Fold this protein.
Amino acid sequence: MTDTEQPFENQKISRQLFDYLVQLAALELSEEQAKYLLGELNAQLRSIQELAAIPLDEQLPVTTHGVPYTDQDRPELRADQSRPFPDSQKILQQAPQVEDDYFVVPDIPHTTLE
Amino acid sequence: MDFCDLSAFELASLIRSRKISALEVTQGFLQRIEQVDGLPGKLGSMESNSHDVEGVHAFITLTTEQALQRAAQIDQCIATGEDPGMLAGVPFTVKDIFCVKDTPTTAGSRILANFVAPYHATPVERMLRAGGVLLGKVNLDEFTYGSSNESSAFQPCPRNPWKLDRVPGGSSGASAASVAAGEAPLSLGTDTAGSIRQPAAFCGVVGMKPTYGRVSRYGLIAFGSSLDCPGPVSRDVRDAALMLQVIAGEDERDATASRQPVPDYLAGLEKGVKGLRIGLSPDYFRITYPHVESDDYTEQAITTEIETAVRHAAELLQEQGAEIIEPVPMPNTRYGIPAYFVISRVEAASNLHRYDGVKYGYRTSQPVKDLAELYRRSRGEGFGVQPKLRILMGMYVSAAQYSEQYYRRALKVRTLIRRDFERIFDPQGEYRLDALLTPTTPTTAFPLGEVYGDSVLMQYADQLTVPANHAGIPGISIPSGLDSQGLPIGIQLLGADFSEGLLLRIGWAFEQASADEFWRKKVPEILLK
């Protein structure tokens, strides 16, 4: 069987699924923005569905980046040694809230796993 | 003498031989910026007034004091007989997606508006070490997500110097605009689907996307990590060669930066094109895009003026001794955008999870009850619509139940696109091409506001440039004329992995052969004011 036989034409993202994605993505949207984004997502999905029509051999390998890396091209791995940043205060100054070199965050919600 | 009309190569030579000082040059460019740029981009929407529309609006941050100090240092260095480097005193701008130490690095987004980078990106560091003088950071589409620069959170957005009611392209739109308007001879941009080449074509300048891994991505705020390529924007091919020479090469801080030796690009320019095989493909003279309301696709030829410009370039190269091969089938070109919609979104979503309102960047000022609400509010208020779209699409197509049909399928289509190029560049194959010559864009610069908001149509502006990003191969856009509206047309050369030297050589030969054409004497509208 080739991948083309998998039916995914005409799939649409429902409002319910959209709301779930928004929650997973840790976003908060106005209603106006949500409507626009859902419309654009489904328009993009129609374009993506063009991929369904391409006959693909099951054995066809994936390409995760275009240029093949040989051992000669690839940089050697560095020794696994920590290198302290020369001015860590400069990094901490970027944080919205710090206390004694710690990042300060509000309460972390707890969920009991079943 | 107006230094702003000279190339980087000429400027470096004049400064090195002390015919002009680096300080004079920097002051000259700062004056040009003062004349043409208008208000710098600022957070929030702005009411348009006449002053807004009249400027290029390339800059978000001007680094005037540092530039003047650096230029004075270069002059001192030369006075003591030291070599300041290949970019001796040459001013440049940097797309605001690269970290520049102690300088705001915003990505054109509210979420990073207050971020000051603690270190230099590698390509920036290399330009500075080579004697370059940084004039400032220039605007872009938010996180590079766009083809027009309209999506930046910093407004007014950049304009096309050739016609101020047109977009400069994107996402390296202000890089291209700043070079076209003579605000700097060089700019550092990035290209993930055409983000250097498309704005270069729209603004009538040269833009090169090097091979993936040719230039380090260290210190580049990531979009699509398997696609992003830093590269040069310049006014001519020799300057692109000069800048690439400086920024290319291995970097222990980027595991994807290749160790392939960097050839002498400048020395190779003069070798000519005699005997080179250059292909033309019918699949690059048309674009296919989906209808908004139906599931149909429309196939549309690119404009006659653009096709004529490409064929004219082919004739000139043929006269120089190149062999033109036609037709060269590239059957998977049309799948570049649908595959990109999947792959780039998955990578973007992954890269955008780090912005959380905790370690750096924007944090909501609203009261929140817990950490989860802090994330949602900070990201909801900090990101514009384009990053949100990419996060949501990336999460959808990579979700466990959909990833096989979308993500893995797109990665397989990427293989087909790569194989198209491997077939035509194979030295033992049927075509044995040295380069493929194509249009860079299906149209010239479109009016501000015409496409923005339609994220599908906007993406299709990259249809002729995105295949090179999927395949990892190098590409360059070179100005090749003006259309009937006086807007620049760009032609594109695509080559095999690490063939930048060959592409620059062909581009240089084309520039020399077309040096006396009438359109080369035209200047952007902004410089006539």
Notes: The mean pLDDT of chain B is 95.
